[in-house]
Structures are given as structure tokens and as C-alpha cells.
Design brief:
Elements (H helix, E strand, L loop, with lengths): L3 H16 L6 E5 L4 E9 L3 E6 L3 E6 L3 E12 L7 E7 L6 E6 L22 E9 L5 E14 L2 E14 L2 E16 L11 E12 L4 E17 L3 E16 L4 E16 L4 E12 L6 E12 L7 E12 L10 E12 L1
Parallel strand pairs: 2-5
Antiparallel strand pairs: 1-2, 1-5, 2-3, 3-4, 5-6, 6-7, 8-9, 8-19, 9-10, 10-11, 11-12, 12-13, 13-14, 14-15, 15-16, 16-17, 17-18, 18-19
Amino acid sequence: MVNLRELVTALALAAAFAAFGGVRAGTVILKNGDHITGTITRVGAAHVTVKTAYAGILSIPIADIKTLSSNIPVVLAPAKAPAQMATLAPAPSGSGWTVTPVNMPVPPAKGTEPVSWFGPNWENELDLGALDAAGNSNSTQFTGDLDLHYHFKPDEVNINLTGGYGMTNDVQSLGFFETDEIWRRALDEFKPKWAKKMFLFAQNSNRYDAILGISIRSNNSIGPGYYIFDNKKVELDVRGGPGYTYERFFHGQSVSYINATAGLHFRYQIDNRTRFTQTMQYITSVENAYNYQASATSALSFELPEVARGFGLRASFTDNYDNTAGELGRKRNDTLIIGSMFYKF
């Protein structure tokens, strides 16, 4: 007697075999000529995951791959677009591959590439640092940084919250809270190649600083920008435009003025674990060039997936220069070196 469950299973396998031209192993051809056969399960932003019968699960850098083929649907998970299911075939040139989307749900992501809790278009990070010293001087400091990054072309939004508090010999030596929000919109609809690298931006940043006596400093700006580089390895963009600044101090005085802003963002992916970033911003009063501020933050991040998925260590150096701080009896230049742990979510 034929078992109904076995019959249904056999029919389902036959349908899948017919739909995808027969279930056979996928193939990865490396640039050095090696062939790897197995089941390709995921093509990520930087790695391809292959399940093999002879070496288990392999994670192969895309930079080492010449071409791919798989008539079994795999997960395509690019860095700046939603994940989808697709089959793969070698490109006619023999280098690279073509993608044929398949209308089926994407399974939950597994493997070494973190996926944000917020969805595939988000890349968020929480940094926490602390210092406690005792002896000839007693010092305690805490720092925190929350970065929320949404990118789905042509729009990109970055929201950053950062702050720090510290006491040295019972005197407050650190106390600030800062927010920074920036929106970019790429001008992909323009046909000239150079115009496709243009974008529009709007930015708002606010700062409270107990040491400088700043109750609130709010800088707002809008204008055009340009992507000099925009790929998986290197990102570099510059932007600039007019804006408005409002400042209020602890002693009650407030000032406001029209400003001019210039900014720069740089990211270099050294390898699949290590990333270097740098942001710079210059803001000056249009009416009084003496009234200006400049800031720069450089950071080196190192991921440690062996400890926990999305976990890593970060070292950063921030330099804030306020040319009018001398009028308040404070030093114009403030630097901050921070070592912290981060978690991507």
C-alpha cells in the first residue's frame, strides 16, 4: 500500500526538481582557478556561504570569487538593499554572475553577517566605555554612543546620540550630551554619470556641555553633497551649505546667526573585521568669521564574532575646537580619546 505522506513528499520533490531544472550542487569558481561544489545558501555583502559535504560550512570572500552558479534559490543580502531569493548563473563573459529573482520568502538570516533587529535596511551600533582610576588622583568617566543608520536608496538617514560624564578629584571634568541627525537623498534620477553622485542633505545637531557652560547649541544646515567614492570598500562624501545656529549659555546670554557649513564623511573597510571611519565638520558665522567651530572624530572598530555576534571593540579620537570658548575663560580645544565595546543590532 502506498503511504499518502510519502506520495505527497515525492510529488513535492518532483515539482521542485522540475521548477529549478533538477537539484544539483552549486559551484563557486575562485579567481585562482579552484572549484568549490556544495549548496550555496547566502550571498552577502562581503562573503558567500557554501555548505559542503567535505569541509562543512565555508564563508568565502566575494573578492576571491570569479563566478557562481546555483539553480537552487539562495539568499541575496546586499549591504544597501532588501534581501531576496534568487538563482545564479555565470555571466556570459565568464567573470561575475547573473541573478534571476525567485518569488519566495526569505528565510531568517543565519551565519556570520549580523542583521539588524530593525530590518535589512538598518545598521545600528551601541558603544559603551568606562574608566575608573584611584590613587594619586581619583577619576571616573562614562561614555556612550548610539548610532542608528537607515539606508535604502535613494534615501539615507543617520541618527547619533552620544554623551559622557566624569568626575576627577570630586570635581566634574566631563559632562556633555549631543545629538546629530542627517538625511541624504541621492539624485539617481539624473542621467549624467557625475550627477548620479550628487545628493541633497539636511542636518541638525544639538549639544549640551557642562564644562563649557553651553545650555544648548543647535546647528542646522541644508545643501548639496557629492559622493566621491561609494562602494563596499570605501565611502567618501563631502557636503556644504547655509544654515542657522542658536546658542544659549548657563549665564543666560544667547546668540544666533546665519552660518555656512562644510562636512566630510569617510569609511574604509580594511577587512571583514576591521573598519576605519572619520567625520569632520566646520561651521562658521557668515557675519563674523571669528565665530567658528570645527570637529573631527576618527575611529577604528574591530569585530569579535567569536565572543558574540555583532560584538567588537572600538577606539576613537575626537577633537572639538570652539574659537569663541576663550571668551568664556575656557580652552578652545577639547580632545577625547575613548576605548569602548560595541554591539551591532
